[in-house]
Amino acid sequence: MTERDARRVVVTGMGILSPVGNTLDAAWEALLAGRSGTGPITRFDAEGFASRIAGEVHGFDPRDRLEPKEARRTDRFIQLAVAATQDALAHAELEITPENARRVGVLLGTALGGIETAERELRTLAERGPGRVSPFFIPMFLADMGSGYVSIVTGAKGPNFATLSACASAAHALGEAAEIIRRGEADVMLAGGAEAPITPGSVAGFCALGALSTRNDEPESASRPFDRTRDGFVIAEGAATLVLESLEHARSRGATILAELTGYGATGDACHIVQPDPEGAGAAEAMEIAIARAGLAPHDIGYVNAHGTSTPLNDRLETLALKRVFGEERVPPVSSTKALTGHLLGAAGAVEAVFTVLALARGVLPPTWHLRHPDPECDLDYVCDGPRNAEVRHAISNSLGFGGHNVSLVFSRYEG
Question: Which residues form a coiled coil (predicted)?
Answer without folding.
Answer: none
